[in-house]
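Progress narrative, Year 2. Work on CDP-diacylglycerol--serine O-phosphatidyltransferase from Pseudoneobacillus rhizosphaerae advanced from sequence curation to structure prediction during this period.
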Amino acid sequence: MRFIKLIPNMLTIGNLYCGFLSIGFAASGEYKNAAILIIIGMMFDSMDGRLARMLKVNGALGKELDSLADVVTFGVAPSFLVYYTYFYQFGLLGLAVAGLFPLFGAYRLARFNISSDKTSLNYFIGVPITAAGGILALLTLFGDKIPNIITTVVFTGLCFLMVSRIRIPSFKEIPLPKYGTIVTLFVGSLLFVIYRETKEKFPYLIYIIIPLYIAYLLYRFVKGKNKKDID
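Result:
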């Protein structure tokens, strides 16, 4: 029973570790792998909170740990990825600009953490750092097909959108059969394309998270008729 209570936090730590590995891969020049690890981190991040609520073990520790993991995986890691793939040519200025992304993301997370629980279930204030980091990861994956100027514009826009007051709809309350199936198919197709296209060393962590993620989605799909069992 004690082990079950640790599962959500273990997933959050897995998210954090993906961010660390992504930075290492980016520094080694394996940019596609670095981007894939950020996407894997998103999968971990999508599970930990819901599992904590399902197991009724959500608490302050898990929330704080989740925020710290998000800053690394979806803030620091994407900024390093963008720096190594494009901003490096601007030298110290490029490094300074890349560093703005985790700063804006950390501020956005801190603001989210002090918002009311009821508000956070209906909508987000500003673009979540998870989504922003995932977008940068996708831009890097297909960077050879996307002009650098577009990456720069998107990077800049995401920085300001994270700290903006724009309301972004939250899908936390949408049951899996109506929403999650589409996401599952999209993520599955995306990972298949990644697996087929990349010729670099593929992160073995993907072979662990994919079966786990599929099992989690199947469980939510089966239990989706009873909303209380999920949320």
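Residues 2-27 form the longest helix (26 residues). The radius of gyration is 17 Å.
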